Amino acid sequence: MIRDRERAAEEPATTVALDCLERGIESARPGTVIPSAVSVDGTTITVAGEQFDRREYDEVVVLGGGNGAGHIAAALERELGSALDGGVVVTDASVDTDRVRVLPADHPLPSERGVESTRELLAAADDADERTLVLAVVTGGGSACMVAPDGIPLADLRSTTTALLDSGVPIESINAVRKHLSAVKGGHLARRLTPARVCGVVFSDVVGDDLSVIASGPLTPDGSTFQDALEVLDGIDAAVPDSVRRRLDRGARGEVAETPRAGDPAFDRVSTHVVATNMTALRAARDRAAAAGYEPVILSSRVRGEARTAAGIHAAIAAEIRATGTPIEPPAVLLSGGETTVTVSGDGHGGPNQEFVLGGLADLPEDSVLAAVDTDGIDGATDAAGAILGPGNRPDREAVRGALDRNDAYPLLADHDGLVVTGPTGTNVNDLRVLVVP
Length: 438
Known about the structure:
Elements: H1 12-27, H2 30-37, E1 38-41, E2 44-47, E3 50-53, E4 59-65, H3 69-80, E5 86-91, E6 100-104, H4 112-127, E7 132-139, H5 142-145, H6 154-167, H7 171-179, H8 188-193, E8 197-203, H9 226-234, H10 242-252, E9 270-276, H11 278-291, E10 295-303, H12 307-324, E11 332-338, H13 352-359, E12 369-374, E13 386-389, H14 397-405, H15 409-415, E14 419-420, E15 431-437
Parallel strand pairs: 4-5, 4-7, 5-6, 7-8, 8-9, 10-11
Antiparallel strand pairs: 1-2, 2-3, 11-15, 12-13, 12-15, 13-14
Helix pairs in contact: 1-11, 2-3, 7-9, 9-10, 12-13
């Protein structure tokens, strides 16, 4: 999965780190997850323990979107066979399927082709009736892939998304804004699917697996408001287009209907199952580390905040292990997940996981290896999933400081063979970090 792995052949600790990354990502891919979560036996379709009688429906379709949506559709086709009639998913990765149409989109910024694809998705949703069973696929990246600007031009949605992503605010805040600029997010897809029977199949890429935040909650009641969205924009140091402000102001005044709330009839025939999470990847990485003879510890699946700050804490724990054997004796592997952010002040090229690895070097024991990736294979707006640095490829401290000051991690990591490149992985369950203390 990871390209150019041969460069790590002489670094045992680096090999372990890369193995943990690969095992973690593989465990959360649809081809691994769906066979254990979805099955068909005669006329009974089972999704995460919930059963549906195929005879009660005229058709069974797959609808949804996100980074892993195409791969999930393909896996559902394999598991359900002739019990599945068709569907539409919107994703940024091309996948060959027989029944479900896989339509193109882009990530992390919404695009015109994403708009066109989402129109087809919504048309398919409008065609569903009370005799339709919809397996609704929702994955990380769905906010960018399933794009239906409501009351604003696409260009203004793109610039607002960029400002939010660069601001360092948490994903809940970003999605509070996106929900109120969309005709699909914040429960609107569930409303379009009414009166169909909807069973959500969800791969979570957010801390705590909050269904209202994953892909901006297209199937879930929304607790945020237009006023909340305005307050998010007021709190970031960036200009946003006038059309966005006008739209949110109108909503705050009650001139535009709020997103669907709990108790809305749109959710009466909707059930949702989270079948893969960040912890899925962490547990698999833990098992791989243990098999290699290391003592593994999962620190948390909920690490958030500035990437370089979080990295310093991880490095401090590694230094404590090296110095005192606390909380565990080496050889050890520290694992964490969640989603760090970067407040962008420079004009460089990189992503949160690349900044995490650079940010941890100052306090990292000399013999240790630090790696971090976004499990979808896309860190920031780069072609790298993340980064890995160990004793054999560390840049000097002055170069690291300069790269961090400019938010320009990518070129420095590339010069030191420190990029982890996977290409699109077919899943998205947030970030995965591995710190090896030999």
